[in-house]
UniProtKB/TrEMBL annotation:
Keyword Translocase included in the entry's annotation: no
Entry's localization field: Nucleus, Nucleolus
Assembly behavior: Interacts with NPM (via N-terminus). Forms a pentamer with NPM at a ratio 4:1 (NPM3/NPM). Two pentamers form a decamer.
The keyword Acetylation is assigned to this record: yes
Main location: nucleus
Name of this chain's protein: Nucleoplasmin-3
One cellular component (GO) term of this entry: cytoplasm
Family: Belongs to the nucleoplasmin family.
Chain spans, region Disordered: 110-133
GO MF terms held by the record: chromatin binding; histone binding; RNA binding
Domain Nucleoplasmin core, chain residue ranges per copy: 4-101
């Protein structure tokens, strides 16, 4: 999904999958869903299709975009486990999806250290002063 994909009336879905024999953990994070140039003022519903904990396929709507009221939605790095399919369930788009893909090699503990801030990395925040009257 780097830098992204586009869903349209002619290309209604995009599947992101990884090699099943890959011995790594993969995280796909969806950051932004937005209407792009040429979109009509209609509801554009984007679904994510994946598998739940019981390995059953589920479809979940993640965005309902309309040019006149909500042309863009930030999903704050909504994390997904590949394989996952993005589908334009309603509307004709074009809808652009952007996010990132992180590969974590099993047995490599360095990725765990990256997520934790050490005391050295923390910045001192200035104290808050009361407002002057």
């Amino acid at each position: 999904l780097l830098p992204g994909c586009e869903l349209t009336a002619s290309t209604k879905s995009y599947t992101f999958q990884v090699d099943e024999e890959d011995d790594s953990d993969h995280i796909l994070a969806l950051s932004v869903v937005c209407l792009t140039d040429g979109a009509k003022d209609e509801c554009n519903v984007v679904e994510v299709i994946g598998r739940n904990h019981e390995n059953q396929e589920i479809a979940v709507p993640v965005a309902n975009l309309k040019l006149s009221c909500q042309p863009l939605l930030s999903l704050d790095n909504f994390k997904l486990q590949p394989p996952v399919t993005f589908r334009l369930a309603a509307g004709s788009g074009p809808v652009h999806l952007a996010g990132w893909h992180k590969i974590m090699h099993r047995g490599d503990a360095s990725f765990e250290e990256d997520d934790d801030l050490s005391e050295e990395d923390e910045e001192e925040l200035p104290s808050i002063m009361p407002a002057k009257k």
